[in-house]
Design goal:
Elements lengths: L5 H5 L4 H4 L6 H21 L4 H24 L6 H17 L7 H4 L6
Helix pairs in contact: 3-4
Length: 113
């Protein structure tokens, strides 16, 4: 699957985290991949409404839940700054695909971070 949305392709996912040495780039790269896979799935599956979108974002959120162990192993964690940045990128994705009315908390409701 590939991403064709130009806004998504230009978006610097997790930018604030990449700018902070506390967050290891190799783990952030995995997080960026999760977000890009989410975008590719949205383009491929074309969710018809918010409930279908939330199902896709729940799966991506679960992937971030699993990624938390890698943050821990690298001496980092998904704490307040990271939580906000990740959630903002989920909101960006929803808006980029025409779901500007998506509930920001519902997009990441499955989070454990």
């Amino acid at each position: 699957m590939s991403v064709n949305n130009e806004n998504v392709l230009r978006h610097p996912f997790l930018r604030a985290l990449y700018e902070d040495d506390y967050y290891p780039d190799h783990v952030l790269d995995r997080g960026r991949e999760i977000l890009l896979r989410l975008c590719a799935r949205i383009e491929a599956e074309r969710p018809a409404g918010l409930s279908a979108l939330y199902a896709l974002t729940a799966e991506a959120t679960e992937e971030f839940n699993a990624l938390e162990a890698e943050f821990d192993a690298a001496g980092s964690e998904i704490e307040t700054v990271a939580r906000e940045e990740i959630a903002e990128d989920f909101s960006f994705v929803a808006t980029a695909y025409g779901f500007a009315d998506a509930d920001h908390e519902e997009l990441v409701a499955a989070r454990e971070w």
